[in-house]
Amino acid sequence: MEFLVPDVPLLKIFSFLDAFSLLQASQVNRCWNRVAENDQLWRNLCLRKWSFCNFSLCLGSQSWKQFFLKQTRLEYRMASVKPEDFIFKEASGNLGILGPMAYLSGHGHPMGGQEKSVVCTVSSKHMLYAWDVQEGTMIWSSPVQQSSIMRLATLPQMHLAFTADLEGTVKVWNCQDEDALATLTMPRACFSLEICLTNDGPFLMVGNSEGDIYTLTVPELRGVSKVSAFKYSVDLLHCSPNKKWIFASGTHQNILPVVFLTESLLKPSEGKSPLSLSIPFSSCCRACWAPRRTSRVTVMHRRGSFKKTGFTTFELMAERTGDRADIQAHQIATFLLPLHMESPIWMGVGDGNMIVFESGPSLFLFTISGHLLQRFEDHQRTIGNLWVDSVHVLTTSMDDSLHLYTWEEEGRYPYLRSCCHLEHLGSDPAPSCYVSKAICDDMSIVCVVSRIRESSILVMYSLHM
């Protein structure tokens, strides 16, 4: 067969294989092995599986194949983890109340020659902290800011953090130097931040209290465009996994969400409005892009006098005719939750056909059409926070317990797998004053717990490596 099938068609055939089949094909003979090692094949597998694998910044010195196999091993280990597999660290003291947090590095990205999970947290003391999760230590803190930091976003590929305070001051930090890399004072308070890492480089989207959306360069924070989207605040800004779309909305009942073509915000035409389309559902409270269906977005909304919670999923298309482009949004599914079900606050999506959300102490998995797939009852008290990415689902409860789930690949049953339960986060058994929140990568879980009204503790779990 190596004589009958030249490299080009063989490469095309191999592009339809999953990773396991590609590894098997590589063992047939030298010719097949050489073609199966093609970097583009493994890059496509990474893009298909992980929405954050868009640029070679993720790789370091690794090939795409090495990156894929390494990430897969880390995910498999996290999916089969037990409580005793974690190293427990706890940071407490005069930290203030810890608010938003995000990973500055992780997912197996190298930092300083070693693989470390670094997480950023915002404090009520008007400061930004960076923590080494494996060591359980603070490795950097910003100077005290003039106003409360309200929003946080990170760009792990460039080891940058972005903050916006109550007065509208936006700053970029490398979490190493004392001073910010750049500072921009906005005319209004900032209600949302979103990083968009494109082929033309990274950009920061900022939504303010007056309904304006600013697009800024990174790290300079130079203005690229400004669009007046709403009459009320921009509370939600979400960039699609392929960076083609920006979803924007406010939680005000009179606001209709808007989807922008990212290119029209990054390269504005003088005298022309950015290409956009309104989504005909008001009272939007959450929205999520499907990680593997890059033009599919699911919106959670409240409707009617009884404030029924509903979910509606749209497929977006951009059609070009000469110099003109049009956006179309096709509603592909919608459903309302029954009145007896407690309205959820949080949501996430799986492969584009599944929605996960909390209701009381239970976690539910529905299809986008409203068919119940799974129900989990791993908590005794109300789930206060839900965190979802393309691999993991994390729930934290009012009883200070945490549960880890992972998505099954390729939509196989069980679609969501229960992995690990951690009881009584932290060393103090006293209950929290505030709802715990947690995030994770493939090597660690980080949770904020507030047991007194003046200060929080940071609970860090890292895998034995």
TrEMBL record:
Annotated SMART domains: FBOX (SM00256)
Pfam families membership: F-box-like
GO CC annotations, alphabetized: cytoplasm
SUPFAM superfamilies in the cross-refs: F-box domain, WD40 repeat-like
Highest rank taxon of the organism: Eukaryota
Annotated F-box domain residues: 1-45
Protein's UniProt keywords contain Transferase: no
Keywords on record: Ubl conjugation pathway
Protein's pathway: Protein modification; protein ubiquitination
InterPro entries registered for this protein in UniProt: F-box-like_dom_sf, F-box_dom, F-box_SCF_Substrate_Recog, WD40/YVTN_repeat-like_dom_sf, WD40_repeat_dom_sf
Record protein name field: F-box/WD repeat-containing protein 12
Species of the source: Neomonachus schauinslandi (Hawaiian monk seal)
